[in-house]
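Predict the holo structure. Ligand: arginine.
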Amino acid sequence: MTLEPTRTTTAGAPAKTRVQRRRRYLMCRPAHFEVVYAINPWMDPAKPVDTALAVLQWERLRDLYVELGHTVDLIDPVPGLPDMVYAANGATVVDGKVLGASFRNAERRAEGPAYLDWFRANGFTTRHDPEYVNEGEGDFLVTDRFVLAGYGFRSDDRSHREAQSFFGRPVISLELVDPRYYHLDTALAVLDGDEIMYHPEAFSESSRAVLRTLFPDAVEVSAADAAVLGLNAVSDGLHVVLPEAAGTLAEQLRARGFRPIGVDLSELLKGGGSVKCCTLEIRP
Ligand code: ARG
């Protein structure tokens, strides 16, 4: 992908022509989804979850990816691992190299090996067993130039150096400060190349400065859109799949030449996740 310095975001300027790139995603059907423990502020075990509806909503997301031309692989859900549906946390894959996940909370720990097993069984020969806690693409997001890496709630920032030496790509550490946005992928999303969107208040003052320096043209997302997990979005360079409640954000994206597609994942929101959480990108 070529990088051109562009200034297409100011009012009146024509929106950039967007180009879709086909992706490969790994997903996990929420067959055993429920909220029986609380490890983030979104989770309330007293609130009922409709597992059948969760499956239906998830199937619509999977079907949408297929309709858009993407490949969706599936990993078998494991009984007793209700959060396994949040496939983004299962690993980070860059240049076909698989960095396994290691979870902070005991309730999710068995997911790490389950995902690594899938990659072993599916022919991924370059795999790394993590030394430090990292929750996969929950806290690692990949742009053309960088791997952006979150810490503060889940991933150990020593995992950032581990990722840098494994992938051979520069890793930028970003500190999260709002417990509602406990994973990087709840506060920031990659739209295309080196173009991102994020909610500034989710980051420490110094990390905001880093983001402003590296991404002066980023889409800044409002508190209201962040609070419906609008940033938990998946872009293929043209289509941006995001929670349908993030209406203003959808307009911001449209003005940039993207095609926002709103989806309803109300049941999975009860676990503290949405579109991106359910989607692990496998980068060849
Ligand atoms: N209940 C899960 C947890 O707290 C939600 C994970 C959401 N995944 C994500 N990529 N942000 O770990």
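Residues 90 and 136 are 6 Å apart (CA to CA). The domain at 21-281 is CATH 3.75.10.10 (L-arginine/glycine Amidinotransferase; Chain A).
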